[in-house]
Design goal:
The chain has 6 helices and 3 strands. It is mainly α. The chain has a 3-stranded antiparallel sheet with strand order 2-1-3.
């Protein structure tokens, strides 16, 4: 009877691990898609319909954050395809760092521009691309946690 109970418990653990793996796969895949879409989604908007995404902000700020986030999304897709969900912790951390760096850098550049900077800061609005990027990072973290815990 004891061997049978051990067999049932082991089988249940395997089924739980497989369910976690499938859930982590789909969460990670959605997170990578969100990061890729977020890089090309509008991050800031200005009057007269001027919208800037991560790639066009790169030229303005002279940094390559959009490329780094795309690279992290690609690495995440490769890790997900090999079921190495622990890598998502690393890619999420790098992506979150790049997002924070860009946000802070944009604020500093606007403040350095004197009187025009104050006017520009009032006119520039953050757009929905930030939310998509944050959701992508969050989904990657949840996928990694779901699989490892």
């Amino acid at each position: 009877m004891n061997d049978y109970q051990e067999y049932i418990n082991k089988k249940k653990e395997q089924e739980d691990k497989m369910t976690n793996s499938k859930t982590s796969f789909w969460l990670g895949l959605l997170g990578s898609i969100a990061l890729i879409v977020g890089v090309f989604a509008p991050l800031i908007g200005a009057p007269f319909g001027v919208l800037r995404n991560y790639m066009s902000i790169n030229h303005f700020l002279e940094i390559g954050d959009g490329i780094i986030i795309l690279t992290m999304a690609g690495i995440s897709l490769i890790a997900i395809s090999y079921r190495k969900y622990e890598v998502l912790y690393f890619t999420s951390l790098i992506s979150a760092g790049m997002l924070t760096f860009t946000y802070l850098t944009m604020g500093q550049i606007l403040q350095r521009r004197g009187g025009f900077g104050e006017l520009a800061a009032e006119l520039i609005q953050y757009q929905w691309g930030w939310a998509v990027l944050i959701i992508g990072i969050f989904l990657h973290l949840v996928a990694a946690m779901k699989y490892t815990y």
